[in-house]
Amino acid sequence: MPYKPIESYGVIGDLHSVALVGMDGSIDWCCQPRFDSPSLFAALLDDRKGGFFRISSLLPSQHKQMYLPDTNVLLTRFLSVDGVGEVMDFMPIQEAGRRKTHEIVRVALAIRGQVRFRLECRPAFDYARRPHQLQFEGRGVVFDSGTMKVALISRFPLCPVGSGLVAEFVLGPGESATFILRQIEDREAPGLLEARLQGQEALERTAHFWRNWLRGCRYGGRWREMVHRSALVLKLLTYQPTGAIVAAPTCGLPEEVGGVRNWDYRYTWIRDAAFTIHALLRLGFREEAAAFMGWLERLTEAPSQAGPLQIVYGIDGRHDLPEETLDHLDGYRGSRPVRVGNAASHQLQLDIYGELIDSLYTYSKSGSPISYDWWTRLCRLSNWVSQNWQRPDEGIWEVRGGPQQFVYSKVQCWVALDRALRLAAARSFPLDEAPLKRARDRIYEAIMTHGFDPARNTFVQYFGTNALDASNLVMPLVKFLAPTDPRLLGTLDRTLEELVSDSLVHRYEIGKGAGDGLTGGEGTFNMCTFWLVEALARAGRLNEARLIFERMLTYASHLGLYAEETGPCGEALGNFPQAFTHIGLIRAACQLDRMLEQKR
Amino acid sequence: MKPISQGAYLDWPAGHWLAALSDDDPLARRLAAYALGEIGPAAEEASAALLAALEDPASFVRVWAAAALARVCPGHPAVVPALVAGMKDERAFVRSLAVWHLGRLGSAAAGLEGALPEMQRLLADGDPSVQVEADLALKRLRKQGQFLARGAV
After folding, report:
1. What is the ipTM of this complex?
2. Is the peptide bond before A160 cis (omega within 30 degrees of 0)?
3. Which residues of A touch B34 (CB under 8 A)?
4. In chain B, whose CA is at the least distance from the CA of A167?
């Protein structure tokens, strides 16, 4: 089974984990029971031994995919002259207080004609490292790996083939058949095979959950469907028990096919978290922002090695994310190594303090005033920044080639202190302002003196280089400088000349500036493209901004999903779908729409 | 699409499944019955064994054997009575299975009228999933056949 394009997958989830479903009806990625659990299906990373669960029509068909409107219920359609079949996939949302059961419900339907389907389920536990036994019962089959049991409940008898199961069945027009893949967190719990085999009730409940949730969205501007889809993706990436949001639900998808930049994104970065809060608040989702704030608040109680905060945590708040390579896996289209865990977790990345305090500031300003306890934590963070901002760090891109004085990190240190001062003033919180103000101003001068190249009229990646970095596009977004400041306009023009290709933005030039310590290349970075849109819009260059934004929309998948990066032929690269990109889309759409309205 | 008339299910010919119909494991016999049903009239050699399987000790095997017989020997008179008996099984999933198969048979199946009272009775079954399955089966039949349109359901 050849590898499919990354962008050809749809995603479903239950706020604990997700499954990626290909246009051919194959679930090629799913970790159970949590986002960061070892995989059950990972054909995405090894098409021979990774494991998959496919239900597809045996008629030679055109394949289409869509979501039921305003939901994360996915419909994969098989269209042929002789018949039309569908597979509807969803993961029911757990009700509070019920036992921890995770299900993938797959409903096959014949819409027109007699449709012959083939089901093939080949799980491969623990990233295909752990074998399993099959236990047959009347209502289905249990896959038992010794540490985990997963049941496939099926009305049709399932035939064992190797370590998997196969069935073929014919459905007449209007007829449906439901299959449930089920896991109970308590391995010894009874009733693993007890589930109703009518998908309709679970479907209605799940669709209602998503539609009801999306009703909380206040956005009514242009590109509403894309904004709504992005919001649904962000919610899908939320781990309900803690409120944490994973950067992406996959690991090992390459930033360059065949390359080595293959990271594990199934964790929660403070940076992404802070940006997510901004995006959710913009759309009116206060509850998610509050849950995330609660998660962040708990983290600030336990300092890390590098500073008061670690850059990335497990979705349960754990600090330790040991990195290992899965050398037995082929990697997506041979992109090796496949990494799980994340060795960047102990890096020093100063920018996270700015992003975090800015999100607290926005949260507080949006009508949820932060508590005194939060304020004391925030004081501790901002005091630490005022004393440590001069340190070199690994920066936003987590370079592995050694620390530098990154301009973006300094800008965010300035943001941290600026927002702390503003918050103290707005809420009359106790604060010894003078040292913070002095540090804030020193940072500003340092950026203007060492982070700007007068000869090229542009801000640079780090002090002393002339290399560019697209992260500097964020300066007007965080109000570090006026959007029309000549230094920013110069930076915009240099960025457009040197980092932009066909409207898409490279985050930096590989081989120039700070190295990431790795060989090979990468695609353009979607978040940076959306930052460019926002920076251009704020600079009043609305036509340019709109054209780039609209072009960027054409790089979305058929379902409106984005990975981290986009390749030269428009292909998705990197982990998928990625929160950062969808956050960028939401921010850019909101800003651009507002400014277009103001212009009318 | 692999035509059923090729005489095989999952690349195993009817003879393979016919032998499996005598397996000690009732789940293997169920699978064999299903496979023969999928092969359909091309598995005609299995009709006697399927008829015999209507007396299988496992009720769910009897139900699957009846469903298979309906496809191997369309119109066979033993099918509906076997499924009606399945609807009276003590296990809810067997009742549910039997009524589901009746819904799939189509309104032209021989003797289907005789099954309708039992199907309707299952609308009030103690198990909700049986109720839902009975409702779906009756609705499916209602869309078909003239005798149903005349109000038999």
Report:
1. 0.92
2. no
3. 156-157
4. B10
